[in-house]
Amino acid sequence: MHDHPSVAMPTPARDAVELLCTAAELSLARGAHDSAREHAQEAARLARRTVDGDWEVAVLLRASEVLDCVGEPGQAIALHCRALNLITQEHMHVAPPPGALAPTLFASLS
Predict the structure, then answer these.
(1) How far is it, in rounded angstroms, from Cα 80 to Cα 5?
(2) Model's pTM, two decimal places?
(3) Would you list the domain boundaries of the chain?
(4) CATH architecture group of domain 11-95
(5) Distances (CA, A) of 101 to 17, 38, 95, 97
């Protein structure tokens, strides 16, 4: 799924990333934008170390929301693109059921 070596992220590390996301959101709510930015960036960086694409996407979307709110739209968009890439890769690796494409193909030829 990733273009870099990945290892399963142990639960304590996942918990740490979840705490970083929460810290980013709480910092944002308190108006501490620098702290929110740092926590969100670190969470997104650490999320790369997992093999669970769904979880990584969730972390990326949480971090991008914070980054957008603190005035970092370019970084937020980059994280959204990374999340979309993961989602796309996930769906491209799933083979459609046999015959699923045939009706669509024949319908377009009619």
Answers:
(1) 21
(2) 0.73
(3) 11-95
(4) Alpha Horseshoe (1.25)
(5) 40, 46, 11, 8
